[in-house]
Structure formats: C-alpha cells, structure tokens
Amino acid sequence: MASESSTPMAPLTQRPGDLIVQAPEGPAEGLLLLFHGVGSSAEDLAPLGQVLARHLPRHWVVSVRSPEPCDLGAGWQWFSVRGVDEANRPARVAAAMPGFVATVQRWQAKAGVDAARTALLGFSQGAIMALEATQGAPGLAGRVVAIAGRFAQAPRRADPATVLHLVHGESDGVMPVGLSASALQQWQALGGHATLDRLPGLGHGIDARVVEAVRQHLTGAA
User: Is the pTM of this model over 0.85?
Assistant: First the structure.
C-alpha cells in the first residue's frame, strides 16, 4: 500500500529499526508514533501508518521498533513476557519506561512537535507501553490510542490533557476486551476523557474496522 505522503518512506533514522512513514516539508502539525506488539517489528505497523498518513498529511508518522530482541523467538520487545503475570508485569513495564519516554521525546525534537500535538498509537505490548506512559510520564502526549491493549495495573491518575481511545476485538483471546472496558471505567473515574470501540468477532489483531475507528479518532471525521 503506497503512501501518499509528502516524502517517501525514509531509511532507518534516529534509532536503528525505526521507520519514518511520513515526514512533511516545513513545520509539522503533529506527530504520530506507532508501537508494535511483542515479537513483531516496525515494518508490521507501517501499512497502518501509511493509511493514517494520507489523512494526516502535515504530520510526521513514525513506526517505532522496540529495543530488545524478543526472547521467545523472532521480532522485538519492550519487556519480556516469559513468565509474565499480574504481579511482575508492572515492574517490567516500569523498567522499560525510561527508554520508551526517551524515544518519544527524541522524535518530538526531530519533528519539532510538542506533547499536545503528539499521538501515541500502540498495539498489544505497544499499547501497554503507551497507556502506562500516562502514569510514568504524564503529559508526554495529547492522545493515546490503544489497540488490543491494557494498563499494566489500574491507573492511578488521569491527565486531563491526554485523551485515550481504546479499540478492542470482542473475540480477543490474548487480551480480553474486559481489560479495555476496565481501563475506560478507571480512567473516567479519575476524571479523564476516554472512548472505547468494541468490535464484534475480532480477535487479537487489526482489521479494516480498527483502521477506520483510529482514523475517525485522529482526524475527528466520521
């Protein structure tokens, strides 16, 4: 799927493995960073980035590769899921968070875009990192889009400057949709703004309905 962006997909930049999907000429209106799941790579979310770039022509769009080789096989990870459970997940995420935050800030500096005009979009483990950034680094981004994700633990605060949009398949057997439903309720109870799209029949993945839900959220257009 070819991108109709102002520049073609660029070679690896800033950090080995990150892919620039779109880099507009002149001042940018925003920055969209995409974060893949465990065992995956930046290339896997690049097609989604290309679709969104066509609707956000003045945005930098970058698919970020997580920093560690996956210890379960091919691909990459922010933290190991080997033996992960409810008790040890928060500590693993917290250990990875400084690197995640530094990556976001590097791309904000590169694009010349502030936090308010930054959107973090994560799938699965990438969604966990993006959601938990609202706890470990409040004010990092104005929008967080979590596809098939969850908080590592119940959120403790909700930044009024950060809007959450959750997208989850109702047939997800890896991360049940109830995790996003709980995240929605918890964020709203803390005074934050969040929305949730539940997609019938979708498992742990991304389909055309996910793409359209994300497009509508990021562009404010139905």
Answer: yes
pLDDT category of residue 73 using cuts at 50, 70 and 90:
confident
Number of C-beta neighbours around residue 115 at 10 A? 18
Amino acid, res. 34: L
Cβ-in-10-Å burial (0-12, 13-18, 19+) of 107 comes to buried
What pLDDT was estimated at residue 95? 97
Average confidence (pLDDT) over 15-36: 94
Catalytic residues: 124, 172, 204
pLDDT in tens, 134-159: 999 999 999 999 999 999 999 999 98
- Domains of the chain in sequence order: 19-219 (3.40.50.1820)
